[in-house]
Design brief:
Largest sheet: 5 strands, mixed
Shape: elongated
Order of helices and strands: HHEHEHEEHEHHHHHHHH
Number of strands: 5
Radius of gyration: 24 Å
Number of domains: 2
Length: 338
């Protein structure tokens, strides 16, 4: 494998992208417009919506069952208390109730928590049981703080899938790959150049977007910038390899466009970009774990909002890294020039 050939193809692909001004502008403006539109549209929470985490066994005692039947409260079944206290701190749960120990946790600064607490106490008013109250301190996470990691991840997804998948299919359709195959360039050299070019462009564009939106919105960033960059780089590589697998043998732009949309649209809605899957159907939560954007978004949120270190996000990084290698080998194995 000759690096001078890879470098020549790398430069050519970069120039092609930069000269396409409409594509460049779209890659920069789309995530910015989405962040501004969606984030500010959902920043103000509806005061009639409440979320309660419920740690309970198979059967509920009568007061707990009465509280469980309260309308306009979304009850989320949980297994343990400790991993979910952070959600009370962040106002993601208005109240956390352990039925077995008859103990509940609320955030002292949460207006919703105050109201739900009154409803819980009212349910136990005629019971001899004494409830134990615990206060949790923590700042509320704005929707814009929560959604930005997902929007950047989604922008990476669109740029990676269509920037690799659609472009390679277009090259094959117009005979560009056929002409390249007549040169000393090997398939691995061509694919390596395409991956490196798209990786560099995605990282550069999204770093600019990140810095610009931070100045404009001033969102949370409690973790390491290196850790966040590592998450996004691994996410770029993984999604680029996904696009490579789709484009490895297809020669029709229409078929490629359909397959890429079939893969990307469910991932956009099932990966927790716009809303949390907390309380969603179990099969939906399990399906989300097979989507690379889920791991990119979750790891980025842990770094930005919770200040997570590498060990805290090691499971997400491992999934992205291993699946990237597998997808790359599959794409290179089934790739054809014509």
């Amino acid at each position: 494998m000759k690096w001078n050939r890879i470098y020549a193809l790398f430069v050519a692909r970069n120039l092609e992208f930069v000269r396409d001004r409409s594509s460049l502008a779209w890659n920069v403006l789309l995530p910015v417009l989405m962040i501004i539109g969606f984030a500010y549209a959902f920043t103000d929470d509806n005061p009639e919506k409440f979320k309660v985490g419920l740690v309970a066994g198979s059967e509920l005692e009568m007061p707990a069952g009465q509280f469980r039947s309260t309308r306009y409260i979304k009850f989320i079944e949980l297994d343990r208390v400790e991993p979910n206290l952070r959600k009370v701190e962040r106002h993601q749960l208005d109240l956390l109730f352990d039925v077995g120990s008859r103990r509940y946790w609320i955030n002292s600064t949460s207006a919703n928590g105050y109201i739900v607490e009154k409803l819980l106490i009212a349910a136990y008013a005629d019971s001899a049981v004494n409830l134990q109250k615990s206060l949790v301190e923590g700042d509320e996470i704005r929707y814009i703080d929560w959604v930005i990691p997902g929007v950047i991840g989604m922008n990476i997804m669109w740029g990676a899938l269509f920037g690799i998948g659609y472009v390679i299919v277009r090259y094959r359709k117009f005979g560009v790959l056929k002409r390249i195959s007549a040169t000393p360039v090997t398939a691995m050299e061509f694919l390596s150049a395409q991956i490196l070019s798209r990786l560099w462009l995605l990282v550069a564009v999204n770093v600019v977007i990140f810095v610009a939106m931070d100045l404009f919105v001033d969102f949370r960033m409690h973790g390491s910038y290196f850790n966040l960059l590592l998450v996004f780089v691994l996410g770029c590589i993984n999604l680029i390899c996904c696009g490579l697998v789709v484009a490895a043998r297809i020669s029709s732009e229409e078929v490629a466009n359909g397959l890429l949309n079939l893969f990307s649209w469910p991932m956009m809605f099932l990966s927790g970009v716009w809303f949390s899957l907390e309380g969603a159907h179990p099969w939906m939560q399990k399906l989300a774990q097979f989507l690379p954007l889920t791991h990119v978004t979750a790891a980025a949120r842990q770094v930005m909002i919770d200040g997570a270190g590498l060990l805290d996000i090691a499971d997400h990084l491992l999934v992205l890294g291993v699946s990237s290698v597998i997808l790359l080998f599959i794409g290179a194995w089934i790739f054809r020039w014509e």
